[in-house]
Specification:
Strand content: under 5%
Largest sheet: 2 strands, antiparallel
Number of helices: 9
Structural class: mainly alpha
Helix content: over 70%
Distance between the termini: 53 Å
Shape: globular
Oligomer: single chain
């Protein structure tokens, strides 16, 4: 496999569009993520990826099963769906970053040429960390979730730091490099068409998110009503 790969912007636009679309579907699922911590509270994947402690991660998961029956099933289904969808989101996300870095590498000379190619290939490590994380979380989705013996909390946190560190470093550096090329006029007129396509994809997803946003405050107030949280409605 060649270390340097020639990337077409059309391929990047496709991967970026898939990433936005799957990410949008996942955001719809995340609106249904609730857990019981004294009261019903909403949580996100970031809460599971960077819990304050191993016990907090377990509390989030156990809290799902302590919710009233229908809400518990809805929240558990949403979390599982999001984790499974993430397996589709991953190649689109890390593939987009990979192609972006490779495209920057093509425009670079000297030190920057191999540097951005390395940043591109490092996305394979980030992808692997993400896969391990998802499998880890899927295996913990049970009422009696406990601390893992195979992957202790420090190792799990290390996976998250590695994944986010690699992806964010590559993205920020690539955006900075591309911005520099635009400022100094080192771009082709053809690339403007692809930038407009990317902008259109972002706008469409942004509008879709606005149209599907629910009033989370009203939902939480409804869930936390005394008549909603009756002991007889909880899953033991």
């Amino acid at each position: 496999m060649p270390f340097y790969i020639n990337i077409e912007l059309s391929h990047f636009c496709i991967a970026f569009g898939v990433m936005l679309l799957v990410g949008f579907v996942m955001s719809l699922q995340s609106a249904n993520l609730y857990s019981l911590h004294v009261v019903v509270r909403k949580f996100s994947m970031i809460d599971l990826e960077f819990p304050a402690s191993s016990q907090e991660l377990i509390s989030f998961i156990k809290g799902i099963f302590l919710l009233p029956g229908d809400l518990s099933k809805k929240s558990l289904k949403a979390l599982k769906s999001q984790l499974y969808l993430d397996f589709i989101y991953m190649p689109a996300l890390y593939g987009s970053i990979f192609m972006f870095c490779m495209k920057v590498s093509q425009k670079m000379t000297s030190f920057g040429h191999p540097l951005f190619a390395i940043l591109a290939w490092l996305q394979c490590i980030a992808w692997l960390c993400d896969i391990i994380e998802n499998i880890y979380l899927l295996n913990k989705l049970r009422p009696q979730a406990g601390e893992s013996k195979t992957i202790p909390y420090p190792a799990y946190l290390g996976l998250e730091i590695t994944k986010w560190g690699i992806a964010l470093t590559a993205t920020v550096c690539s955006i900075a490099a591309m911005s520099y090329f635009w400022l100094v006029g080192r771009y082709s007129l053809q690339s403007i068409d692809y930038i407009l396509i990317i902008a259109a994809e972002i706008i469409v997803i942004f509008i879709a998110r606005k149209l599907t946003t629910k009033t989370e405050k009203e939902n939480l107030e409804n869930f936390n009503r005394p008549d909603t949280l009756k002991n007889s409605d909880f899953i033991n």
